[in-house]
Amino acid sequence: MANNYDELPRVNFEVDMGNFEQARATAQALAAMGMPEALEEINREYARAKAASKIFIRNAAAQEVEAASDLEASLVGHSKSGYVPTGTLQGSITPQFSKGGYKVSIAPLATAEDAEKARKAIAQGAKKIRRVNKPSKSEDAHYYGVDVEFGKGHNPREPFMKPSGEKVAAQLDQKFEETMRQALD
Questions:
Q1: For residue range 152-166, what is the model confidence (pLDDT) as tens digits?
Q2: Residues 112, 114, 115, 116: is their CA dihedral positive or negative?
Q3: How far apart are CA 124 and CA 7, in angstroms?
Q4: Which tens digit of pLDDT belongs to each residue from 9-51?
Q5: Which of 93, 54, 53 lies closest to 73 in space, CA to CA?
Q6: Residue 111 forms beta bridges with which residues?
């Protein structure tokens, strides 16, 4: 079985700083024409916008992790598909941030091996299951969130990432506008 990491259901959020880059270029032109205060002001606003954007992305990721976890816990399995929830998939929903911090990709990183370990631990009386937070390096890793989200064989689709992502995204536009207004006031 080949590693299916690239097929994981993902929710992606990104803040585009392009408008600030355009404003900065305009301010640089104004500074060259004798208005240095324009560049100073845009640099202050740009710094505040960058900081607010990084916080916004972190909060958006946290919202999505919570929404996807809640949806997975309430909808997935429960005798519909024969999948027996162990909490491993729910606990593996992890944000992966870009280097600059303006992008995040949230995905369930549990593998079939993680689920099997969890089932064994539960059978032995364990109350807590180890959280999965990093992609597996194994070439044979099978991320079963792919099977749950998109269905596999006779198991039905039980999407939890896409619906939660749509719900969170619908709330983010207004929140981002508010965040930028507060940052730039």
A1: 887 788 899 999 999
A2: positive
A3: 32
A4: 999 999 988 888 888 888 888 889 998 888 888 888 888 888 9
A5: 93
A6: 143
CB 68 within 8 A of CB 75: no
Q: Which residues pair with 97 in a beta bridge?
A: 104
* Alpha-carbon span 122 to 116, nearest angstrom: 10
List the 93-97 sheet strands across, edge first.
11-14, 103-108, 93-97
pLDDT, one tens digit per residue, over 5-14 is 999 999 999 9
**Residue spans of alpha helices (H) in 17-159:** 18-32, 36-75, 88-91, 112-123, 145-150
Distance CA 148, CA 77 (A): 9
Single-letter code of the amino acid located at 95: P
d(CA 153, CA 165): 25
Whole-structure pTM over 0.90, yes or no? no
Q: Scanning the structure block, which residue is given the tokens 């590693």?
A: 3
Tokens of 85: 């929830």
**For residue 18, how far is the Cα from the chain centroid?**
22
Paired with 13 in beta bridges are 104
Encode pLDDT of 116-140 as tens digits. 887 787 778 776 665 667 888 788 8
Q: Which residues contact 32 (CB under 8 A, 6 or more apart)?
A: none
Measure CA 185 to chain center: 28
